[in-house]
Design brief:
The chain is 45% helix and 11% strand. It is α/β, with parallel strands linked by helices and 533 residues long. The strands form two sheets. It has a nine-stranded mixed beta sheet, with helices on both faces. A two-stranded antiparallel ribbon has the order 9-10. The N and C termini lie far apart (88 Å).
Length: 533
């Protein structure tokens, strides 16, 4: 793409984001951000699939008339051409959803000012679901009962109409898809911020997902997220694969999510990107109703909710997933870790975001389970993260990387302390830059002996260190990186040291002199009161 076009694309995306969010803010009125999110994202989804359908239809019309094209129909009458355009296989073969005429965006826009526009949108969603089994039960039909002032839903339809997703060339299609994806991600982030704690349940900050993906490097195979939220892990995996010259079809996506509305968001988020996915038959609790019990994945990426206390169910007693010990009933952290290990192939790897307490807790069997996992050589890499990364919690977090069977560095764990590597992007929000993510990923790759640059791994004081299981045992199997990597090395600068020492000596001299003066003054005061020294 020409640089000027790229800049134009970026400006267009920024304009759409700002316009949509400003309108969302204005239209929201008394509506909760959680409710409004589904209304906005649902409409954007319908607009996108309608645009991509119409784009494919226009493309087919041209192909049917082009004598040089494999699709050429010759001197065919209009009725036959129309019948061919209604053949769903032409759309299915390029991963485009079939949109019935009554559900196409132009039909909805033409009715935007009608009082029953909410019901018409719900009806359109039902039609789309009926015609596309992949979307069955996914589209949220809530528009007829939405609590918006008269005319406001129509205004929103008009606004979404300004977003153009339908362009004809393959490159443009990708840009349209990426445009929608970025608008989606922007909204998820904004809503997570607006909703506070609840919002963060379905949104993992992009830089953390990028870090997990960069370290795991999911090029091909099965990718699984047992608490997938809105599907952010899968989206970043897609980007990683494309950036490294792979094809999206090289991976298959498996997920599970308990929250029904978030489960729908994830399915829509993946559907708009053309990612084939299996999120299970229904939204369900991962522990009690595992939707993929026989799955053994190449990669597991997850950000489970921290420290869940009400996860246990009697049916989980003696579950085969608890290989290293039954997790405590009052905290699900070690249930998540063992669930993910259980679902790995022998060559599989997992990356998990958890609360810092998981690295050192010794209460209620957690210490015993951690010791068993470490001794079995299942822990590969531990990364300490900066604070203020998440929208919804100030709980410090860390990244665990687990392996089913270690292929390199048996009997060692790599510790990385990245607490000081974050950059503040707002007063309350911190993130990793791409440079920091690359540094972490390159460190892990070098340690594994997989570095493409050929650089050998070396411990760096204050940042990273490879530690034997014996040393970890000496520390009571605590896995906090700060305990192992040591203090940051200080540059050896004799001149700076001499200068600093002189200042410290002068300061000490001044303080000692001041101390002597105070001592003399106290003696005088006490002497006046009759005390002798």
């Amino acid at each position: 793409m020409h640089p000027s076009q790229s800049d134009k694309q970026k400006r267009m995306i920024e304009d759409i984001k700002k316009t949509l969010w400003a309108t969302a803010d204005k239209l929201r009125a008394n509506m909760d951000a959680a409710e409004y999110k589904h209304i906005v994202l649902g409409l954007i989804f319908v607009k996108y699939i309608s645009d991509t359908f119409q784009t494919r239809r226009a493309e087919l019309t041209r192909k049917f008339a082009d004598s040089q094209d494999d699709y050429y129909l010759g001197d065919t009458d209009a009725d036959l051409i129309h019948a061919e355009l209604e053949d769903r296989d032409y759309y299915k073969e390029v991963n485009v959803f079939w949109v019935p005429e009554a559900a196409r965006w132009e039909s909805l826009r033409a009715q935007a000012k009608q009082a029953d526009i909410g019901k018409r949108i719900d009806d359109a969603l039902s039609l789309i679901e009926t015609e596309n089994p992949k979307l069955k039960g996914i589209l949220d039909k809530r528009y007829a009962r939405v609590q918006l002032p008269d005319g406001k839903l129509g205004e929103l339809v008009d606004l979404v109409s300004q977003i153009g997703f339908g362009e004809s060339t393959d490159t443009a299609k990708n840009h349209a898809r990426d445009l929608l994806g970025q608008v989606y991600e922007y909204f998820l982030g904004q809503f997570a911020s607006a909703e506070g704690k609840r919002g963060g349940q379905f949104y993992t900050p992009a830089s953390i997902v990028k870090t997990l993906v960069a370290v795991l490097a999911p090029h091909q195979g099965q990718v699984y997220d047992p608490c997938c939220g809105s599907g952010g892990m899968f989206v970043q995996s897609e980007r990683f694969i494309e950036a490294h010259g792979g094809k999206l079809g090289d991976v298959s996506i498996y997920g599970q999510e308990a929250n029904p509305t978030t489960w729908r968001l994830a399915a829509m988020n993946l559907a708009i990107r053309g990612i084939d996915f299996n999120l299970g038959k229904e939204p369900a609790d991962t522990f009690v109703r595992d939707q993929h019990p026989d799955l053994r994945a190449d990669f597991v990426l997850a950000n489970p909710p921290f420290n869940i206390s009400d996860w246990w169910h009697g049916s989980l007693e003696g579950d085969p997933r608890w290989v290293y010990g039954t997790p405590p009933l009052g905290n699900a952290n070690y249930a998540w870790l063992q669930h993910m290990l259980y679902h790995l192939k022998p060559t599989g790897r997992a990356g998990i975001v958890l609360a810092n307490g998981s690295m050192s807790s010794s209460q209620n069997s957690e210490g015993d389970i951690r010791r068993a996992m470490v001794d079995a050589d299942k822990v590969e890499v531990m990364i300490a993260l900066p604070g203020q990364l998440f929208f919804n919690t100030q709980i410090p977090a860390c990244l665990w990387f687990l392996v089913k069977e270690k292929r390199a560095r048996q009997g060692e764990v790599l510790f990385i302390d990245a607490r000081k590597l974050g950059s503040m992007i707002s007063r309350v929000q911190c993130e990793f830059t791409d440079e920091v993510i690359d540094r972490i990923a390159n460190t892990v790759a070098a340690w594994r002996g997989e570095s493409h640059s050929g650089e050998a791994y070396a411990d760096v004081a204050g940042y990273c260190r490879s530690v034997t299981l014996a040393e970890i045992a000496e520390h009571g199997h605590v896995l906090t990186p700060g305990r192992y990597v040591g203090a940051e090395a200080v540059e050896d600068d004799d001149e700076a040291f001499a200068e600093k020492m002189q200042k410290l000596t002068e300061t000490l001299g001044e303080q000692m002199a001041k101390g002597a003066e105070l001592d003399q003054l106290i003696r005088q005061k006490l002497g006046g009161l009759g005390y002798e020294f």
